[in-house]
Amino acid sequence: MADSSRTNKRSSVEGEAQDSKRIKTNGDEKYNPYLAHLNEDNGNYSNSPLDKMHRHNTTALEASRAEDSDLNPWTGRRHSENYFKILKTRRDLPVHKQRQEFLDMYHSTQILVFVGETGSGKTTQIPQYVLYDELPQTHGKLIACTQPRRVAAMSVAQRVANELDVQLGEEVGYSIRFENRTGPKTLLKYMTDGQLLREAMHDPEMSRYSCIILDEAHERTLATDILMALLKEIAQRRSDLKIIVMSATLDAQKFQTYFSLRKEDPPAPLLAVPGRTFPVEIFYTPEPERDYVEAAVRTVLQIHAVEPEGDILLFLTGEEEIEDACRRISLEVDDMVRESDAGPMSIYPLYGTLPPHQQQKIFDKAPEPLKKGGRPGRKCIVATNIAETSLTIDGIVYVVDPGFSKQKIYNPRSRVESLLVSPISKASAQQRAGRAGRTRPGKCFRLYTEKAFKKELIEQTYPEILRSNLSNTILELKKLGIEDLVHFDFMDPPAPETMMRALEELNYLACLDDDGNLTRLGSMASEFPLDPGLAVMLISSPEFYCSNEILSITSLLSVPSIWIRPNNNRKRADEMKAQFAHPDGDHLTLLNAYHAYKGAEQNGEDVKNWCHEHFLSFRHLSSADNVRAQLKRIMEVNEIELISTPFQNKDYYTNIRRALLAGFFMQVAMRESSNSKVYKTVKDDQLVLIHPSTSVTNTYDWVVYNEFVLTTKQYIRTITNIRPEWLLEIAPVYYDVDSFEKGEIKSALVRLNEKVRRRQAMKGGR
Amino acid sequence: MGLAGAKNKRRLGNDPNNTKWSRNTESFGQRMLRSQGWEPGQYLGAKDASHTEYHSEASTSHIRVVLKDDMLGLGAKRNNGDECTGLDAFQHLLGRLNGKSEEVLETEKRERDNLKLNLYLDRKVGTIRFVPGGFLVGDVVKDKLDEDAANSSDGTARDVSKESREDSTETESVEKKSKKRKAERDDTDRDEEKARKKEKKTKRRNTDSEAETDSASSKDKKKEKKERKSKKRNADSDKGDAEPTTSSKSSSKRKKDKEQAADESSDDAKKAKKEKKKLKKQKKERKEKRRKDRAVSESGSESLENSSKETKPRKEDKTPADSSVSTPSGSGYLTPVTTSTRYLARSRFIAQKKMAFADTAALNQIFMIKS
User: Could you tell me which residues come within 8 angstroms of residue A38 by beta carbon, excluding any fewer than 6 positions away?
Assistant: First the structure.
């Protein structure tokens, strides 16, 4: 380029006067970065420092120069003061030192594995480095960066928009399940991995993107796993698509091997950036603990008493346990403060279902000493394993790790997916310990012996794909056009039984035909971001004249429980719930509560207050409302009718109960005998009890249930009474008597068949 | 499980694992997979992919977990009622019947007596706390042994690609530590230690140095009222010491040796036994033996694991509120505050308050009312 050297000089040397002139020209010409490539040889537009850079041939120096220029190369506007401030901190990040190295590798390979610990700046910086290299405005293809969590996608996008000095939603945007904040100008897009997967269903070649960055790949979410396999396949067809897999931990080798496209290829190249971490001293207990919560509480107190300043992070397994521990710690700390001169300590719980404003509190400063010169205060965060990788809290110096977390487990034989407390993995224990070394050297107290660490913990946490019901995933894969599921290139293939179960469920739901092909129903069901059962129920609800109601129930079932039952006010909460109770089932109770909520909203009441009075969760109700709106939109697109049976009609509730069966006929239980409280699930023959949270007081012989809960006993939760005749009518294939094993259920069905036949014969005879 | 154990009745169905389903070769799922070339016993996933070496067993069958319905910490085993208590009085007799030498029996007896004495003293007059004041090495008192150097070895900025190696450095440093501890123990003058111990009733503290003194002290007879606890601990730490250096196999061998000693008292075994005994509380020993006997049929290593895990007494019987001890920041084992004494002190405090409220004279005094 002829004038490149001139521009160069200008951007670095030129003074204010010329700058202002340039801006003026800019304004006149309506500089548009999207059209820049049309004018590549036209000197008039060369004032953007990007013009002299060539895609896939840039250097860190060029990019830095572009970043340093007074004009924002992406918008053509002047950089704000703040921009340069942020730029300076960005240049201090560990990744920055290796920018050139990164670019060199990026240019030389199609798939790159990038390892950088949390704190290296990879999530915010790498996509920008790619942006300055891909120069998406020249060819119109976007850069995507996936995140496992919605919150991360949103907050990182905001951060990067600030760093680039652009508006969020314009050049930098994000897209998550129920929210899309991108525009026509968007060049860099953060999104959840699930969202990219959904996009892939409609764009199997991912043709909108020139580079896809999979961040936090070490978390191995279901969607990331599928995306990796998918991208690996696409990469072989589309040589122009670049892929970066970013991981924070160890098993980089596994990623490298996996991403050698053909067997004879060498492993994908790896670039590692050291994080900014300090040493963490690790302590084990000399002997196993009797009660890990008790031990954890004591450890926290002990740290508070004797260790120097620094915040504490304690890992526990679930909401109840965390709240309990918080209570105990704060009681004891109060005592300590009263009886000796211990410093103040603020204690914050942290778990997924906590309202956001309370989650924010963990970033508050530790309390000041009680008196001047007194012992320093500290904060103690009691968290689930969300604090393990996803969230960085500065100031943590002590980590207390009892070695447990709640993990999802799926058993394809009993078809139960449940969250169970189980030992963590070694990798995750190291990750937890690492949290102590973010700001200065820290300590990690493990409440187990070193022997237990070595012998009882598995090496790596099992990826989600091995722990989940796959029916939704299989449906997505089918929709993506993957025919050969057996040889689909999973990084960790799921157990064959799990896949069999998924296929079988989809077949019964009529999402797959008997040859394993996607049916129309299945294709439609895959449009919904729901489990296939729920989706099928929703799609077939118009046949039962109650799609409005089923839509509401579906939304309510896809958010966390709307019932609040505070420990100190259980009785009152139960009374309030009883107001909404429907004798026939919990699904209907949910619906009643939702209708009451909408009623209160329409009456112009203060809904928040109303919810509080009625012990309902405003947050979850309103998010159900939001989900409902989204699902409604999808239904409209798919031309699914929205209808209701008139409320006065005696079949109003009957229709709803029947419609439930259309999606949940595989989740039915029959009472064992007339005076027993034990139910037996159909086909899988698991003995279950009805969860005590139910509002149903009668005992019915047949119930449909929403979930199977495994605690000390096996429970079914959210149940509704059904009539067995409906089963034969709605799901004749599943309830084909011949497919049942001998037992109470089979004989009940045989009797039922007999009855139905007789009734029909009578009708016919008449 | 003993008869007195908590009963946990649970009804199981005829086929809780639903093998009926998994054996059914006619199911739709199985048909589909077979039609695409899958054979039972094979992994799913790409054919001869290079990453198959990384597949775990969870890719063959679903993950099985044990339902956890208690608060037991990692590695702790439930007391199934097969460990009896109150056999102290018979230890001597039983020991003789088991063919232990008089000498050994004597030491065991002394240990028991010490424990009793300490417990008594603890109950009667309480304990005094001491603050660690460093180690006298030659003529100089050192705050800490040069453990920091060892620890910092894993402290270098972590290079992720080396992460796995790092694990080993971590354990290495632990190893170093424990070795040092051992060495330390040997070095310290025993008498001096003993004397110190006697007046000290040292309680467990957070610091390494503390742990060291403890383990050192453990070698001597336990005088501490904390005895029980610390002994256990010592035993444990002893085991810990041995572990990194010797393979688990060898340690299991050690155990077996012990067992032999019980029967035939071979020279070698006796020696090992003695060493152990010094370190271990008698109760524990008893337990171990029982366990061992039980485990003979099982593999040696397994029994070892059990034994170390089952060490009974908890932190709770550990004594005083360590929290009030000011310890140097370089820490070792963090010993949680013992609740018992905390509660003890607190309940005493509450009782005093109550008494004061009940007593009008005292109340008047408190509120400065002249009667």
Answer: none
Q: Which residues pair with B50 in a beta bridge?
A: none
Residues 103-132 of B with CB under 8 A from A: none
Residues 6+ apart with CB under 8 A from B90: none
Could you tell me the CA-to-CA distances from A748 to A102, A690, B68, B234, B267 in Å, in that order? Answer: 68, 20, 36, 64, 73
DSSP string, B197-260: HHHH-PPP-SBHHHHHHHHHHHHS---STTHHHHHHHHHHHHHHHHHHHS-HHHHHHHHHHHHH
A702 contact partners, CB below 8 Å, separation of at least 6: A668, A669, A670, A671, A721, A722, A723, A724, A727
Helices (H), chain B: 19-23, 28-35, 91-97, 102-125, 147-152, 163-187, 190-200, 208-219, 227-245, 248-264, 267-279, 282-295, 300-310, 339-358, 360-366
For tokens 């140095």, the residue is B209
Which residue ranges in chain A fall short of pLDDT 70?
1-48, 249-250, 263, 276, 390, 765-766
Instruction: Report whether B269 contacts B261 (CB < 8 A).
Output: yes
As a whole number, mean pLDDT of residues B100-121 equals 79
Q: Pick the closest to residue B155 from A247, A539, A433 (CA basis).
A: A433
DSSP A518: B
Which sign, positive or negative, has the C-alpha torsion B341, B346, B347, B352? positive
List of chain B residues whose C-beta atoms are within 8 Å of the C-beta of residue A280: 155
Measure CB to CB from residue B60 to each of A448, A495, A685 and give the nearest one: A495
**Pair A257, B51: CB distance under 8 Å:** yes
B79 touches chain A (CB under 8 A): no
Contact status, residue B94 vs residue B290, Cβ threshold 8 Å:
no
Q: In angstroms, rounded to a whole number, what is the distance separating the alpha carbons of residues B180 and B145?
A: 9
Distance CA A404, CA A428 (A): 10
Q: Cβ distance A672 to A702 under 8 Å?
A: no
Beta bridge partners of A272: A115
Q: Name the more confident of A114 and B134.
A: A114
C-alpha A189/C-alpha A182 separation (Å) is: 7
Helix (H, G, I), strand (E, B) or coil at A295: helix
Report how far residue A524's alpha carbon sits from residue A634's, in angstroms, rounded to the nearest whole number. 10
User: What is the per-residue pLDDT for A222?
Assistant: 93
For A507, the token pair is 């077949």
- Measured CA to CA, the distance from residue A340 to residue A160 in angstroms comes to 47
Amino acid at A130: V
Q: Are A295 and B336 in contact (CB under 8 A)?
A: yes
Q: Which of A31-40, B89-98, B139-148, B304-313 is predicted with the least confidence, judged by mean pLDDT? A: B304-313
pLDDT at B95 over 60: yes
The token duo for A573 is 């909460």
- The rounded distance, in Å, linking the Cα atoms of A538 and A550 is 6
Residue in chain A nearest B11 by alpha carbon:
A687
**Residue A103 half-sphere exposure toward CB, CA atoms < 13 A:** 23
Q: How do A687-690 and A714-721 pair as beta strands?
A: parallel
| 3-state DSSP assignment of residue A401 | strand
Place of tokens 């009529």: A510
Q: How far apart are CA B229 and CA B315, in angstroms?
A: 7
pTM comes to 0.71
What is the radius of gyration, based on Cα positions, of chain B? 27
How many cross-chain Cβ pairs, A to B, lie less than 8 Å apart?
Answer: 318
State in Å, rounded, how far the first CA of chain A is from the last one: 94
Mutate to test the interface with B, among A255, A278, A290, A419 (most CBs of B within 10 A): A290
Phi first, then psi: what are they for A506, rounded to 5°? Answer: -65, -35
